[in-house]
Fold this sequence. Notes:
The chain has helices at residues 35-41, 76-93, 106-113, 127-135, 175-178, 194-204, 212-216, 219-232, 242-250, 261-265, 271-274, 299-309, 311-320, 327-332, 348-367; strands at 68-72, 97-101, 120-126, 154-165, 188-191, 236-239, 256-260, 275-291, 344-345. The protein is an alpha/beta fold. It has two domains: 35-156 and 288-319, D-Maltodextrin-Binding Protein, domain 2, CATH 3.40.190.10; 158-285 and 323-367, D-Maltodextrin-Binding Protein, domain 2 (3-Layer(aba) Sandwich). The longest helix is centred in the last third of the chain and has 20 residues, at 348-367. The radius of gyration is 22 Å and the shape is globular. The two termini are 39 Å apart.
Amino acid sequence: MRFPLFSFPFLNIPNRQALSSQEQGQASSHGALSRRSALLAGLGCLTPLLPAPATARRVQKPAADTSLHILTFAGKIAEAQSKVLFKPYEQLTHQSIVPHGWNGQISDLQRAANQTHHSVAAAMMESSSLRLGCDLKLFSSHQTDSSATNCGQPSAAIDYAMAWDKARFDTAPSWLDFWDVARHPGRRSLRRDPRMTLEIALLADGVPANALYHVLASPEGVNHAFLKLEQLRPYIAWWSTPEEAGRILASGGALMGCVPTGEILGSVDPDRQRFGLYWQQRFLVQYGWGVLASAAKNTAALAFVSWLEQAAQQQAFANAWPSLPSITELNTLTPRIGRIPPAIAVDDTFWANNLNKLTERFQQWLRRI
């Protein structure tokens, strides 16, 4: 399943089966429902509303759209979610879920929040972005979480690694080789965002994985990362969404690049066999779901996101999202790893505190000729 990149208005999305909405618990003393109470109360079906009596002089209004319109990431992520999350939820509750692809940016979320036609109820985004969106009051408070940034909880973890075209390499490259354009000429793909991109630049310059955020916490460390990126600037093919990262590699737009592992492992042959993955220094990115502030009293949205945050649904997605090689593949890796080290966890606290200023500098750097 392929979802188009989120655009405005939502007039280009195919119609899906219209299913009845459901009653989702009772309002609290403040008029807002917690997601947990909405979930517990919300799985019973509401008796369908009867249409007004037809008369010769009155034209009946079309039924209101009771579907939940949500933002997620197109490509293999949405395919896995549709199979193990969205369709099972529709079967369980008779609530129609309509996913729209988007790029995960706060600016696009702000525009989505102002739409009146098919308004967005919930969005999947990186945990650091979710915290920032919470600070901007774009999301409904998460009533079961008493933390300061309580608009959502991590519910999905996705690995990103360097992939390379096997036809172009005799041995598996590292991030150091990623910068070696003399030995390996050609384009490289990186994310058009400081997150992961600055960390990769430091890894390529020999900074240990456990020191990345210590280095980035200082102005000198940030300068260090941008100087390293400057060396590679003419050779970078930028991507903005996980699907685009996979598409650049599959189309031959780059001989190597940072990509969600599932975009490679979830591909069918021959694309699956074309690419190797650098497992030793991959990244782990946490994602969560937020209910938009405009949907704070939408019990169907609250119940849906509460269901997604449950351990059973998190495990279902983890099982469906390919993130590690098979034993057979592991044994054929060159050099043979033997044991795959843990992924480098992207530090959401660091990025929630520093994303705005580092994004501004990153955009200035991109615009500089």
